[in-house]
Amino acid sequence: MLKVDKLNVSIKMNKGLYPVLEDVSFSVARGDTLGIVGESGCGKSMTAMALMGLLRKNIKIVSGQINFDGMDLAAFSQKQYEQIRGKRLSMIFQDSMSSLNPLMKAGKQIGEAYQIHFGLSGDALDSKILESLNSVGFTNPEETRSKYPHQLSGGQRQRVMIAMAIAGNPELLIADEPTTALDVTSQNKILTLIKNIQAASALAIIIISHDITVISQTCSHVCVMYSGWIVEHGKTKDIISNPKHPYAEALIAAIPNAKAKDKELGVIKGNVPSLLQRPKEGCVFAERCKYRMPECSGEIGNFVLKDGRTVRCILYRHKDGGKEQ
Ligand SMILES: Nc1ncnc2c1ncn2[C@@H]1O[C@H](COP(=O)(O)OP(=O)(O)O)[C@@H](O)[C@H]1O
Ligand SMILES: [Mg+2]
User: Fold this and answer.
1) How many CB atoms lie within 10 A of CB 227?
2) Residue 188 belongs to a domain with what CATH number?
3) Whether residues 242 and 185 fall in one domain
4) Does position 258 have pLDDT exceeding 50, yes or no?
5) Whole-model pTM?
6) Both 191 and 245 in a single domain?
7) Least packed by Cβ within 10 Å: which of 61, 70, 199, 209?
8) Domain that holds residue 138
9) With contact defined as beta carbons under 8 Å apart, do 148 and 102 qualify?
10) Counting atoms of ligand 1 from 1, which one is nearest the CA of 56?
11) For residue range 261-312, what is the model confidence (pLDDT) as tens digits?
12) For ligand 1, which residues put their CB under 6 angstroms from it?
């Protein structure tokens, strides 16, 4: 349903043009849940904003396609986006406090979504609000509807956001760090809710998280991102049990209690480079990679392995059935 093909996004800064996403490619099928995982600053939110048509003025799609149900969103105008955003494509953000209107009761905010999408009013709207609150796990919807955002907990606010995001029956829902601000119990509740919503519909979901355990609990497929690249893309269970890209390997070995084969990988040394420090040529991970070879400073393509996953690393040129894409 969604196929992102060699998406390149750059930021204009200090009169220069700095790449922030380079040849990002992935796809999500109807009813699938795709995770995007990687350390902070690697381009996850930028990917989400590009899909939603919400990039700031100084940030541009330079090339590539975002195919959504036969349309190329990368070429969409803001006017065209307004026809589908919040309707066919929907997004929830990490920070529910600043995404909700602090001066409006929860029920009214959800109600507005149903007014906009279905023109509901009166009793029909009232019962829809209660049904909606109930469907996102509020056992006392009458009470919840008359609360202001600050009277709700972080997890409750996030559930209100989810109710609003799915009000228009979207085909694709993007959740950017939906549980990052929450304690473990609320986090699990939200993840269960997302799984239940998905099971009850053909909704495709993209969950963005810096936490691979969140992705492993919810997503059939995953993209591992590093510094604007998708370094590995495939089935979550394949990648978690047997990561191929050196960054994916390090990220998974860093999971607490993981049976790390190589203890040294437990901590990934160094940091994600800033936009200004990104290498202009070669592999973006080379500087931190323990397998680095001279070829890593050349052009690095995507290699499709025998098992179907894609790895952007020169090691897979002749390994595991790797064929350049
Ligand atoms: N508005 C902006 N102006 C300049 N640089 C930005 C802006 N937003 C994000 N960046 C930079 O783009 C890169 C990717 O950021 P982001 O997509 O937010 O990462 P993530 O969501 O994975 O933490 C980072 O280097 C970040 O500093
Ligand atoms: Mg982010």
Assistant:
1) 28
2) 3.40.50.300
3) yes
4) no
5) 0.92
6) yes
7) 70
8) 91-169
9) yes
10) 1
11) 444 445 567 788 888 889 989 999 999 999 999 999 999 999 999 999 999 9
12) 11, 20, 38, 40-46, 56, 274-275
